[in-house]
Amino acid sequence: MKPTFRFKSAASAVALSAALVAPGAVIAQLGMVSVADAAVVSRIEVRGNQRVDADTVRSYIGVTPGKQFSNADLDDAVKRLFDTGLFSDVQINQNGGTLVVQVVEYKIVNQVLFQGNSKVKDEQLSAGVQTKPRSGYSQATVDADVEGIKGAYRQIGRNDATVTAQIVDLGENRVNVVYQINEGDRTKITAVNFVGNSAFPARRLRDVVATRESNFLSFLTRNDIYDADKQKADEEALRRFYYNRGYADFQVVSSSAELDPATNEYTITFTVQEGERYTFGDVSIDSAITDVNADTLRPLLKTQPGATYSAKDVEDTIVALTERLAGSGYAFAQVTPQGDRDFNNRTISVVYSVDQGARTYVERIEIRGNDRTRDYVIRREFDVSEGDAFNQVLIQRAKRRLERLDYFTSVNVSTQPGSQPDQVILVVDVVEKATGEFSIGGGYTTGGSTGGGPTAEGSITERNFLGRGQFIRLGVGVGKNTRDYNLSFTEPYFLGRRIAAGFDIFRQTREYDNDYKSELNGGTIRFGLPITEALSTQFAYNLTQEKYKYDDDCETDDGVFDPSCDLAPQIRDAIENQSPWIKSSVSATLTYNTIDDQKNPHAGIFSTFAVEAAGLGGDAEWVKFTGRGTYYKTLSEEMDIVGLVSAGAGHIEGFGGGDLRVFDYFRANDRMIRGFDYDGFGPFDPGTGDHLGGATYFNASAEAQFPMPVFPQSFGLKGAVFADAATLYGNNLAGATGTDMEWRASVGASVIWASPFGPLRVDYAVPVKKEDGDDEQNFNFGISSRF
């Protein structure tokens, strides 16, 4: 009888292999005896297998009858059998001329079941566990799944969820795995505190971090969930905030999250050290490249002496200089900022050193963590690819682009050594986030040509459709006398280039003052092109069919206009002689955007200028110019007061002998001036008082926004005071009056709410300058969108 080899795991096999000594030696520690260095068997017998075919087991052994084998061969055979994941135990022994392989198969998982879960669906849990039906049962895998399920509940704010695994033996070597879940209560964040801050109040800093304190609407926003990764991201957000406002020595000393088991609530505390506030001192460029003249690069500097120190301005300068150098043929040029602090004067002088840099190439780009987003969606944000010169500036710009996509909770780009000294591997680690949104909103208008009343809006949006980076939105708006339906789709990289191509389809119906109705159906095909990081343009073709008809109250049984209906003759003419009406136009829009935060702006400019020309077929023949710009500036960092000023203008002019219809003119609205009704001022018909719109408008507004006292910051309430001014004039329709430039003005106050349903605001405005025939509307409640 030859000695037996029995291993409970592959690790035991490795230990034995390392411990084997001379042939025939006794290994007391393992209680086993070695076979001879070389042996021969005539056959291999497999025992204990039920599902796995014996020939399959023999194929893993690697020992052939009639040929010599050694201890190392048996060692390798055992490891290979364990590595299959099919067996929980393996025993090999030699009995005369027979090699006996005794195996114990893992039990087969028949079903994986979840019980007690309602907040996380079965489909989500099934996708996250490793134990699958028809796979081998492994206790280690089940234990890992238990921790994975707990992690899924931590992501939705249920840190005290408990999970136990029950194994139900079905006989015939089959089992059911049942994960019993107690979901527990939501783990809330009772407070987000800051220690050591003096330059900025805690309320302002809470607006910087993504973690929010819990309130009664947190179950909708889900932004009060504690997450260690989010906390680290909040630390980085605080650093960027301070570094961009002059505090170059700022540090996050520590951040902690303390859980109170009694209340199941976290208290988040950030301890910071602000340091002194600096301005820029001398700023210069030192070029070590002979053919590069530093003076020619000076216009690219974003940092100016005397300005408040900003890390972002330094980064933008590095990017601008590096791009200019790369465009001049210096692909490996490096720009390194060197700062010199003057602690007495609190200045930082910066020298941008330009040198040739090491010749390093990108060997490959590895992307990890993108379970949903396709690889190419991430790769296309990089201006470098495999084989290109490695450029750290372009890598960091790609990182910022990926972050702006808003597909990921975190993006990290690191490097690893490549296969050659001059090669590097880019590693992109991402953590994906939900990109689908369902939003609803509402409002109430107190009058207007559509009769006023409640309004409601809803939309479904997916920013990363099918993981392809495509944008799709379906929206519906309903009012007392209005209906809006729209569908939008955008492919951000059309034909593999950084060209955003898309289309919009819409349908609008309106009932005006119980006099007439309108129905607009149309669509747009558009192409957007980036010019710089802040400047972009869009070209579009637009096709719209407009239909107008009298309301039942203004139409006789014979289908003609009822003279008793008080409706302006200019509107009657358009309904009877210019409906249906086809507008076929092309348009171009230029947008400049440096806003720091699109949802809660504190600084920057957002401006647009558009021109639209109708006459490419269809009935309309005119050209229209519109423009609007808004400038944001923080007036008080300590009190979080933000000021904004905006101005806009528009003009429409007929050409080709075509006259403008009454429906072509600009109509007064709350984006021009608040405190007046929709279509509530401007040129009008003296007989009926109906406003007819104007060919030209100008408007301006000034506003100051501030946190609402008493209410917690996490609730998202702000107040505002404003002053508006506007004029709408010019109308060539017969009988129109009030066509001269006359300014209107109003003052008012607002409540702005960053609600889970989208940004909402209530405005109360009082006209302080108006004309006879103007219609007022003091209250306005609806979706907030001042861009």
Automatic annotation (TrEMBL):
Gene3D superfamilies: membrane protein fhac (3.10.20.310), membrane protein fhac: a member of the omp85/tpsb transporter family (2.40.160.50). Residues 1-28 form the signal peptide. GO terms for cellular component: cell outer membrane. Keywords: Cell outer membrane, Membrane, Repeat, Signal, Transmembrane, Transmembrane beta strand. Its main location: membrane. InterPro entries: Bac_surfAg_D15, BamA/TamA_POTRA, D15-like, OM_assembly_BamA, POTRA. It is found in: Cell outer membrane; Membrane. Residues 39-106, 107-184, 187-275, 360-433 form the POTRA domain. It comes from the Bacteria. GO terms for biological process: Gram-negative-bacterium-type cell outer membrane assembly; protein insertion into membrane. The keyword tRNA-binding does not apply. Belongs to the BamA family. PANTHER family: OUTER MEMBRANE PROTEIN ASSEMBLY FACTOR BAMA, SORTING AND ASSEMBLY MACHINERY SAMM50 PROTEIN FAMILY MEMBER. Part of the outer membrane protein assembly complex, which is involved in assembly and insertion of beta-barrel proteins into the outer membrane. This is Outer membrane protein assembly factor BamA. It comes from Tianweitania populi. The gene is bamA.
